[in-house]
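Hey team,

Filing this mostly as a record. A colleague (T.K.) asked me to run one chain through the structure pipeline before their review meeting, and I want the input and output archived in the tracker in case anyone asks later how it was produced. No errors, nothing strange. Just documentation.

Input sequence:
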Amino acid sequence: MNKDQRNEQSKETQAQFDGSSDAQDLAANGEPNSLSRRSFLGRAGASTAIAAAAGVGLSSLLLSANAAARGANIADHDKVSRDDDEDDSSRRAQAFRIRLKTAIAERDVPVPPQVDNGDERLYPTRIGNFSKGLPHKSNGEVDHNAYEALLTAVRSGEPEDFAKIPLGGTSKLANPQAGLTFTLEGTDSGQLTCPPAPAVSSAERAGEMVENYWMALAREIPFSKYGDEPITTNAIADFNKLSDFAGPKVNGQVTPGTLFRGTTPGELIGPYISQFLLLPVGFGALSLPQTYRTYATGVDYLTDVTSFRDRQNGIPASMQNLISGGYIKNGRDLGAYVKVDTVGQANFIAALWLLNPANNVYSMPNGAPIKSGNPYYLTSASANQAGGVNFGNQHILTLLNEVSIVALRACFYQKWFVHRHVRPEEYGGLVHNVLTGAANYPIHSDLLNSQAVKSVLAHNHANGHDTYLLPAAYPEGCPQHPSYPEAHGSVAGAGVTVLKAFFDESFVIPNPMVASDDGKSLGPYPDPNGEITVGGELNKLANNIALGRDMAAVHWRSDGYQSLLLGEAVAISILRDQRKTFNEPFEGFTFHKFDGMKITV
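Output structure:
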């Protein structure tokens, strides 16, 4: 099944799930871990859509018998409270009824199946799972007892079990218990899901690793030069030989204009970098050009076995200093941006541009118009009132932070308690062991026979190391948490969804710009192949953030895309909860999802 067929399956399954009864049957009768990644892909969109469409209850993963009994007592108390409250017209009673109605609606939505790709059970050596920071054997495989301690903790959820997980060095695991935090606004983490990640032996995983190798090799190439020099020309040829590659294509082929881009609407229009990462913005009284520090050219890490093994064992690396930079012009710059950005920074910067705070929020010749459905847009209220705390700048900017933390917790639930998926960095160690004859892992031939592995060997050899290890952009390599889904992408997906809900997605951005090849200046974007719109550039912004982490060698393409959908589901659920609280007449938030579907929340 190709990507287009999977998308059609996803839409069809989502329509089926909208009826809810199928979803309930699946939740009641579905057997976890019994589905292939292919068969699950359609259900994944549906599972997040269920949560988004109706709201969901709290995760039952760790619900003990005592907790269930406490829940029953609470339910009895709520019934008495509801009976007593029916005739109470006080504001307190109204607030209680809104909260109770929302909580009941979320409780009544079925729990989606949480399905991993089966690698953890298939390979006792855990080669398909994240293990960085735990002690490892000399061949790079994780210590069995250490990984079992991790499994004990994630299965029990007990803080004392997490405290017993042994480390191989001094680098700490990144906040696994964050995934167990309950969400009381919007959908709880335990009732959102992501489909199984590509299996370690699959052609899809091989195709993604081919892309990660080429992204690492092409870090210095300006985006504008893709296809005009040997590295990206060879990469494009390599992609077009793969049996399974999920990146965007034109007429079935990867081209210079699709290389390393996302697959959401608007991605292939305009320059590689979103206008929201290029154009200047106002931040209060500050005028901010979007020039950023970057890393030194040509400096990569973890291409020698010693440093690679040290990082896998959790032995810290010395940090590299940033150097002076400019506008984001290539993968090196974008990888540096997504290393040191604050949570949701790109979403916030985009909001500043869209709001254009130097002008009145609803009269913004250099920003973008709000949606026509906004209560303060050409309505009776707008004649003598302006939005701000509701439906205006304060609402939008603070909401970006609200959805970010919820998206992160939902992401960490999937990372630690469902998938525990291998990082590209770790997978590079598997490839190295296979191609040097040190092990016999089930790596797909698409990767082993690719030009990518030959080119990365030549690249590493030029730096004194005869390895097939993935060149890392950061001295410490990837973070100390599993790969799938992606935290950056989850936050980007949630924040961009909020911005699409408030602003006119069809608005054409005037005078689009592109960075010069040296990153020192901006210039007009010549001959755009279509109108560059707010909606398209917001989608592109989300993928710039997600795929920028791939360019730094810390994530996979599938990590990024599925994390956008997860963040989107989180934002939709919070927008839905908030809609019930407004005093203003309001028909709902209408916008296009990442799959192009138009919805009203």
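Quick notes for T.K.: The mean pLDDT is 87. The longest strand covers residues 323-326.
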